[in-house]
Every structure is written in structure tokens, then in C-alpha cells.
Amino acid sequence: MQPIMTTILAIESSCDDTSAAVLRDDCLLSNVIASQKVHEQYGGVVPELASRAHQQNIIPVVDAAIRQAGIGKEDIDAVGFTRGPGLLGSLLVGVSFAKSFATALGVPLIEVNHLQAHVLSHFIQPHPLTPLRLERGADSTGNPLPSPIGEGLGVRPQFPFICLLVSGGHTQILLLRDHFDIECLGTTIDDAAGEAIDKAAKIMDLGYPGGPVIDRLAKEGDADAFHFATPHIEGYNYSFSGIKTSFLYFLRDRLKEEPDFIERHKADLCASIQKTIVSFLLKKVERAALDHHVRQVAIAGGVSANSYLRSELQRICHKHHWQALVPPFQFCTDNAAMVGIAAYFKYQRGEFADISLPPYTRSN
Questions:
Q1: Of 187, 215, 296, 359, which has fewest CB within 10 angstroms of its CB?
Q2: What residues pair up with 187 in beta bridges, in sequence order?
């Protein structure tokens, strides 16, 4: 007798990416993402523009995800959605659509915490029979552009393990004892690591988003060319405001002596600030892993796409004979596949959401 499988439609709309995915149990059938280029000219996400773009994207993105998964709407057993944290207007679009869609189908709703979803993305499995197409859109038209699947999908983490959740809005060291038994060992007391990287890029006028530009230019630079101060914070907590200030004042002083200093040393500056932030992050992650005697260390969130962070984590794990869990690039940024895997584990536990639940902008 064949085991009964669960098909989940997942929706993510917490910031500026509209995404829908279909999972059969923990196996990914489709993952469609439509991004919004409109924010680049403003140097950051404009909430009102983001919510309007979500309204344009949500129907074609969900339709594409269902078609690419090779299923019909009648095959869906539950609808998972990001309830928060995120931008209220953006969340409202995804939450409202999920509620309407689930009600129309007569299937249960499953609310998902955006941050937990990032961490649980490591549990997504490739489907053994269905060809997987991961797609990413370049604008707010709802027409996604194809991109290949990254390496690393299919390795199941073993509890307990440490995960560094690092993005433009969050920086946390987490200890996972179960899918939803997650202890926050440390967090930033001010700015997030990704915000510090983007700020450094903005100071150097590298455009938005600046993280990928810094990562690319750093490959051509000397990471030891310049040194920036890092704070002494007790325990596993972080602070990045001082690093930003150190970088800003350093450039201010150098530009007085050499007006074209940034342009002449751009690659070295990128490599140096990147090394400063990544080393600061991983020093505490390494300590946490040693203190809690784990054998696996993971990274998740937007900054986990940074090539230097990925390589340095692998170097540290090799030194200690740990296993580094590095997500495929497609699951580093916001996507519905991670919402779907979190929803699947909640479905197994019978944790369904009431239709009256509102979105929330911040985690408790």
C-alpha cells in the first residue's frame, strides 16, 4: 500500500519577492519567484511600491507554481503562508490570498514564521521522480526567468545543530533541537550584518543591493589591506553599528588626503570590510558549536549567499571535523519553498491556522 502524501502550496510575500512553491511531503516540485527591480533607484525597498507589485504578481506566480508542479488545484491538501515578520503591506497581500485560496478549496491554512522558514530550508528534498525547475523573476510583471538549481539540496540535518541566520534584517545564532524547538543563543543588539554590508556598499556608491557587488569585487581585492574595529560583546551577541562607524570614519579621513581613494582601492575595501564582518560572525558561531558539542553547523538567510562566508564556514568545519550545511543559492533569499517545508512539518503536527489570524511585522 502506497503511503498517503501531502501536497502543500506555499506563499511568501514578506518583503519584495513574490513567491509560490509546491511541495509533496518534503520534496520540492516547483518554486517560482518574481522580484521587483523598481526599488533599485531608491536604494532600498519602498513598502508601498512593494505591496502594489505583490498584487500584480501573486496570481501569475501561484498559477506558474501549480502548473510547473504538474498538479491541479484539487490536489492541494493545505496552503502555507508567511504570516511574519515582514512589511505589513506586503504580508497582507500574501496572507489575504492564502486565506481566500484555502477557503475556496476547503483545505486548512498553515501560518509560518519567516525566520524559522529560512532555517528549515535545509530540510527541503529534491523530488526523485519530478524534474525540478527553480525559477526567478527579474521584475514585477509576474513572468519568472529560469535559473538552475544549486548544489547542496538533499542533505538532511541531524539534531541538534547550530545555525547562523544572517540577513539584512536579522542576525542570530540558533540551536535547533527539533524543527520547532529552536533556542536563540545570540542576536545583534543593534544592526544586522546584512545591513552593515549594504551600508558599506552605499558609502562607496556601489548601488543596491550592495551585498552581491561587495562579494564580487572582494574576489579581486586584498582582505588584509585595511583593518576595521570590531566590538567586544559578551556571550554570543553581536553589534554592527561600531563596524559601520569605523568604516565610515576611515573613509572620511582617507578621502581628505586622497579624493579618489575609494575608486583606487575599491576591491581592497570590499575584501577588507567583508572579512571583518564574516570573521566577527563566525568567531561566535565556532564558539557556540564547540560549547554545545554539535557536529553540524548551518547558515541561512540572504547573507548566506556570500561566497566568503560560505568558504570560511567550510574551512572552520573542516578544521573541527564538522559538517557545514550551506544552502543552495536559490534558498538563501526569500522564497516560498522554505515556507512550504515549514508548513509541511506543521501539517504533520496538526498545527493549523485560524482564518482570523492577522499578519505581524515583528517577531515576539
A1: 187
A2: 172
Total domains, the chain: 2
Residue 29 and residue 92 in one domain: yes
Angstrom distance (rounded) from CA 140 to CA 330: 18
Instruction: Tell me how far apart the alpha carbons of residues 93 and 51 are, in angstroms, rounded to a whole number.
Output: 7
The domain that holds 292 is classified in CATH as 3.30.420.40
Q: Which domain, by its residues, includes 214?
A: 161-327
Q: What are phi and psi of 171, to 5 degrees?
A: -145, 110
3-state secondary structure (DSSP) of residue 269: helix
Cis peptide preceding 160, ω within 30 of 0: yes
Per-run averaged pLDDT (10 residues), the chain, 364 residues? 83 94 97 77 72 93 97 98 96 98 98 97 81 38 33 75 95 98 97 95 91 96 96 95 96 96 97 98 98 98 97 97 95 96 98 96 80
The whole-angstrom separation of Cα 38 and Cα 99 is 28
Of 144, 147, 192, 149, give the one whose Cα is nearest residue 171.
192
Q: CB of 9 within 8 A of CB of 81? A: no
CB 164 within 8 Å of CB 188: no
Q: Alpha-carbon distance 225 to 230, whole Å?
A: 16
Are residue 172 and residue 124 in the same domain, yes or no? no
- The reply to whether 123 and 201 lie within a common domain is no
Instruction: Kindly state whether residues 177 and 308 are assigned to the same domain.
Output: yes
Domain-embedded: residue 142 = yes
Predicted TM-score of the model (pTM): 0.90
Strand partners, 238: 188
